[in-house]
Amino acid sequence: MAPAGERKLFFVSIAASARHNRPVTGAFLNAFGIMFGALLGLAWRESLSARAQNYCRSALGAFTAFFGLQLVWQGINGTFTAVLKQLLLALLAVVLGNLAGKILRLQMISNHLGRMASARLASAQNNPPGRPLEGLAAATILFCAAPLGVIGAVTDGLSDYYQLLALKAVMDGLAMAGFVKLFRWPVALAAFPVLVFLTAIAAAVRILALPALAAHNLVEAASVTAGLVVCAISLVVLEVRRVELANYLPALVVAPLLVWWLR
Fold this sequence. Notes:
By secondary structure, the chain is mainly alpha-helical. The protein contains 10 helices and 2 strands; from the N terminus they run ββαααααααααα. It has one domain.
């Protein structure tokens, strides 16, 4: 018999992580991935071939979709009617969250930050090597502003689900392997602001939000909605469709509020 809390999907065991007072690990994994990627970039002079890059993109996109679906699976429970209601409320939260994101112009802010980082990368590519401080700023902006990082820190704080940040660690590590070739080794120091930023989000969620959400059984609503947004991120990673991901971040706040209000 499977242990309590363990569920299976297509004969694959999917057990929800136990909530306990341990330090968040996702931010550390992300920072470690950045440092490891820098070491690989310094040791391995040649860049990845186009074929290898496509393979990595496909693999990362598939894992992103899997972890998104895993979050959804862990958050739903009950009868078919109850599961359907949970999914519909999560979809409604995504729609309302996207509307809130557009009002707050989150994607515009994200695009502005992205252009700032891209300008520094383009300058270094035209006149290598680039200035280390500019590379450090560009890497910090890109790694901290990524929606997957924000969602990963939230899920790590809510339910110790650090898998999203572990996946982001691989993505950032591959990117850093290219950055160190353009800006030299100081750019790897971007791992430290990333560690502080993601740890702060996860700790704030765990200390401030988790007690209230757990008391009203609203953690699952946030997890299911986060899983749906992560599935949208996989479309961007696979280059299937361009999605304004930053606008969907408010859905993580809208979901528990919507479920609480409709009870």
